[in-house]
Amino acid sequence: MKWHDVPQNSDAWQDLRCGKATASNFATFMANDGKAFGDPAKRYALQLALEQINGKKAEHSFRNDDMDRGHEQEPVARMLYEDERFITVDNGGFFDWGEYGDSPDGLVGSDGVVEIKSVIASVHYATLQRGSFDPSYRWQLVGHLDCSGRDWVDFISYCSDFPEERQLIVYRSDRDDFKEELKRLQDRREQFLKLVHETRQIIESSMQDAA
Asked: Ramachandran region of residue 87, left (φ > 0), alpha (ψ -120 to 50) or beta?
């Protein structure tokens, strides 16, 4: 594994992620764990195979208002978290494992990472009621711990519409909390990477036939 100290969303960061399964998408292939891969996982495998062949990120990109708000407000959430915990959050960079990798939103000391979500009021309220992280991000959080090798991850939910005292909600998960999930992720990811390889072989074989 190699860690790259690059800013998120920079050209260098995009280049490093090209053709690699990343933690933000691990949930795609963890769906139906123990069963055959579904269409979303197959589409993701195709995307990665094409990126590997072409040497560049896929042309299509998904962007919505929630993503734009997250990018704009993440620095505010990070600052509040730092002030509340009396700590410094360092650049998350990219943990590069060759065929896969991870870009946490930040590193804390030598043993922690953070995942920051800037959300609308209803989502923040649901997290507050739940008393835990948003389960839709479970495999991203597990991926952070797996790829970084660190001991804990703080899930940070931020909503500027809430009163100041509750704009920030933080839930910490330790590596021991995810022992079973870490093994499941590693096994399933190995199967998924084989699917990516098989998909690439089919495309490259068809290219040779057409030559």
From this structure: beta
Residue 171, token pair as written in the block: 């839930």
Q: Which of 156, 78, 75 is nearest to 123 (CA)?
A: 156
Q: Where are the domains of the chain?
A: 2-210
**Beta carbons of 120 and 66 less than 8 angstroms apart:** yes
pTM to 2 decimals? Answer: 0.93
pLDDT, one tens digit for every residue, the chain (211 residues): 999 999 999 999 999 999 999 999 999 999 999 899 999 999 999 999 999 999 998 866 555 555 555 667 899 999 999 999 999 999 999 999 999 999 999 999 999 999 999 999 999 999 999 999 999 999 999 999 999 999 999 999 999 999 999 999 999 999 999 999 999 999 999 999 999 999 999 999 998 877 6
Containing 112, the helix (H) or strand (E) segment is strand 112-118
> How many whole angstroms separate alpha carbon 203 and alpha carbon 50?
8
Identify the CATH number of the domain defined by range 2-210: 3.90.320.10
Question: Distance between CA atoms of 93 and 203, rounded to whole angstroms?
Answer: 32
| Coil/strand/helix, residue 186 | helix
